[in-house]
C-alpha cells in the first residue's frame, strides 16, 4: 500500500518540479507508511528529479532516520502534520513564488480566501461564499521551535489543508496523493488570484 503511495508521490514530485514549484532543491515531500513511520525526501536533493531511492524512512515520534542518511531539514514539520492529523497520509512542501510573496504581503496570522469558485477544489468546500483561512507562521531556522509554535497554534485554531511559512512557502497535505496534489494545485491557483487581485485592487 505505502509502496504504491510512494510511487505516486515520486510522479507528483516530477510534476511539482515541472511546475517550477521546487526551485534549486527547495521543497520537500513525504508519505505516511503507518502510524509510526513515514518516508521523507532526502535533504538537498533536486525534488523535481527524485526517485523512490531518495526517500528515507523516518520515525514520526522522534524524527530519527534509521538509515543514517539526512532526511529533509523540515522533517519536524512533516511529522507534526502526521501527529496532528491521523487521516493525513501525504505532505507536500513547495516554494512557489505566490506562496512566498503573498505570505509576506499578508501581515496577519492567516490568509483569508473568499469569493473564488476554485475554493471548491479544497475538500469539504461547497461555496465561493465561505472564507477559508490558511494560517501563516513567521519563518524560523529552528524547525523544532517552529513546529512547537505551529502545534500550539493548532490547539487553539485547528489547521485545515495547509499552512504558509512567511517568505518561505506552503506546506499542505491530504489523505492520499491525489487529494494532496489537487489541494496544492487549488491553493496555488487561489494564491495566484489573490496576488493579482491585491495588485489590481491595491488591497
Ligand atoms: C534549498 S531551500 C532551503 C531549505 C528549504 O526550505 C527546503 O524546503 C529544502 O530543504 P531540504 O532539507 O528538504 O532539502
Ligand atoms: Zn522549505
UniProtKB/TrEMBL annotation:
It is an enzyme of class 4 (lyase). Pathway: Amino-acid biosynthesis; L-methionine biosynthesis via salvage pathway; L-methionine from S-methyl-5-thio-alpha-D-ribose 1-phosphate: step 2/6. GO terms for biological process: L-methionine salvage from methylthioadenosine; pentose catabolic process. Its cofactor is Zn(2+). Binds 1 zinc ion per subunit. It holds the Pfam family Aldolase_II. It catalyses: 5-(methylsulfanyl)-D-ribulose 1-phosphate = 5-methylsulfanyl-2,3-dioxopentyl phosphate + H2O. Zn(2+) binds at residues 93, 95. Residues 7-195 form the Class II aldolase/adducin N-terminal domain. SMART domains: Aldolase_II. Keywords: Amino-acid biosynthesis, Lyase, Metal-binding, Methionine biosynthesis, Zinc. The keyword Lyase applies. GO terms for cellular component: cytosol. Catalyzes the dehydration of methylthioribulose-1-phosphate (MTRu-1-P) into 2,3-diketo-5-methylthiopentyl-1-phosphate (DK-MTP-1-P). This is Methylthioribulose-1-phosphate dehydratase. It comes from Cedecea neteri.
Amino acid at each position: 500500500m505505502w509502496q504504491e503511495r510512494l510511487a505516486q508521490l515520486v510522479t507528483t514530485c516530477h510534476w511539482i518540479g515541472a511546475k517550477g514549484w521546487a526551485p534549486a532543491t527547495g521543497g520537500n515531500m513525504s508519505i505516511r507508511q503507518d502510524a509510526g513511520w513515514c518516508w521523507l525526501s532526502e535533504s538537498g536533493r533536486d525534488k523535481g528529479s527524485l526517485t523512490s531511492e531518495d526517500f528515507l524512512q523516518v520515525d514520526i515520534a522522534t524524527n530519527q532516520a534509521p538509515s543514517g542518511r539526512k532526511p529533509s531539514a523540515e522533517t519536524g514539520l512533516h511529522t507534526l502534520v502526521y501527529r496532528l492529523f491521523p487521516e493525513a497520509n501525504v505532505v507536500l512542501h513547495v516554494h512557489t513564488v505566490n506562496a512566498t510573496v503573498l505570505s509576506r504581503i499578508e501581515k496577519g496570522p492567516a490568509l483569508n480566501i473568499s469569493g473564488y469558485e476554485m475554493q471548491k477544489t479544497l475538500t469539504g468546500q461547497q461555496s465561493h461564499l465561505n472564507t477559508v483561512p490558511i494560517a501563516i507562521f513567521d519563518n524560523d531556522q529552528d524547525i523544532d521551535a517552529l513546529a512547537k509554535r505551529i502545534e500550539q497554534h493548532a490547539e487553539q485554531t485547528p489547521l485545515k489543508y495547509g499552512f504558509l511559512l512567511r517568505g518561505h512557502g506552503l506546506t499542505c497535505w491530504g489523505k492520499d496523493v491525489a487529494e494532496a496534489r489537487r489541494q496544492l494545485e487549488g491553493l496555488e491557483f487561489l494564491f495566484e488570484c489573490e496576488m493579482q487581485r491585491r495588485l489590481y485592487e491595491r488591497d
